[in-house]
Amino acid sequence: MRDQREVLPESTGYHRRAMTDQLSLRLEPALPNPPATLRPMLARTVTDPFDSADHLFEPSWGGLRVLAIVGPAATAGGGDVEFRQLDGSPLPSVPAELSGLGVRVAARSAVLDGELVVADATGSADPAELGRRLSGAPGRPVAFLAFDLLHLDGVSLLGQPLERRRQALRRTLRPGDEVLTVPAIPGEGKALFDAVVAQGLAGVLARHRSGPYLPGIRSRLWKFIPASGDGARDAPATPDDAMSAHDADGRAASAPVLAVIRRLPLGLDDLEPGGGDGSDPPAPA
Questions:
Q1: Which of 142, 187, 214, 284 is buried most, with the most CB atoms less than 10 Å from its CB?
Q2: What is the pLDDT of residue 260?
Q3: What are the sequence ranges of the domains in the chain?
Q4: Is 55 helix (H, G, I), strand (E, B) or coil?
């Protein structure tokens, strides 16, 4: 009978190292894949502006509603970006100025809700120019205006209240020439509506500040108040805001949008790209 204490072959050391390597591979964290099947939450349309302490009110440019899916990437800011439309289909052509959007997201993966806008000289949306740009034609730059954060580094934020999602958005998204966080005002929907009409924007989005995000659902937690064309102005508010079409081609995508934001009653300062974060005013106690 062979001695049970016989020394194992020298190859055992190799197998031990292989098992250690396999174990370390299994312990490495997986990339936080963002979900690609989410659909945007939808608002119900109401005709009359209103004030409400339970709502956050945001200006709407009436651009193309998209979800921006960023990552996954091994490091924060290294993710590629894909835009998906209301029906879940990917955007056929991503403008060059938005292809590097991932570098402005301080996360390995994220899903942001917002709209794509090409602004004219007055800061209003130019849907015809947006259509041209999305078809691959050159022209004025496209901006992504973000107003919600749905998924972050593999963690769903859908069940969190709107206020917390917006706080996470402000921490995660660095504003720049091609991307901004849409600011909001708590409570004072009528004042914002009057200013939006005067600036020729599409309307005001009123969202319940404690409500969750309901993908693909048209919910009464969100209300859209469209602006009539009666109060819209064709000319910019000040001569400094005026730009010719030639000048606009060379300006940052967010420049005319920022000019409009400064004229809205949001109580915000320091909104230059790369400077301020477009954060909301402090909530009332």
A1: 142
A2: 93
A3: 35-263
A4: strand
225 bridge partner residues? 204
Q: By the 8 A CB rule, do 133 and 96 touch? A: no
3-state secondary structure of 171: helix
Instruction: Please give the Cα distance from 25 to 30 (Å, whole number).
Output: 10
Let me know: does 183 contact 146? Beta carbons within 8 Å: no
CA 237 – CA 233 distance, rounded (Å): 8
Q: Which residues contact 127 (CB under 8 A, 6 or more apart)?
A: 62, 63, 118
Q: What is the pLDDT of residue 270?
A: 40
Q: At residue 118, what is the residue type? A: V
Distance of CA 256 to the CA centre of its chain: 18
In one-letter notation, the amino acid at residue 30 is A
Average pLDDT over residues 188-195: 96
Backbone angles phi, psi at 275, to 5 degrees: -110, -90
Q: For residue 130, what are the CA distances in angstroms to 11, 38, 53, 107?
A: 65, 24, 35, 28
Long-range contacts of 275-278 (CB under 8 A, 24+ apart): 275/175, 276/175, 277/170, 277/174, 277/175, 277/181, 278/170, 278/175, 278/180, 278/181, 278/182, 278/183
Cβ(30)–Cβ(74) under 8 Å? no
Count CB atoms within 10 A of the CB of residue 150.
Answer: 25
Return d(Cα 96, Cα 271) in angstroms, integer. Answer: 24
Reported as a single tens digit per residue, the pLDDT across 107-164 is 999 999 999 999 998 899 999 999 999 999 999 999 999 999 999 999 999 999 999 9
CATH superfamily name and code, 35-263: DNA ligase/mRNA capping enzyme (3.30.470.30)
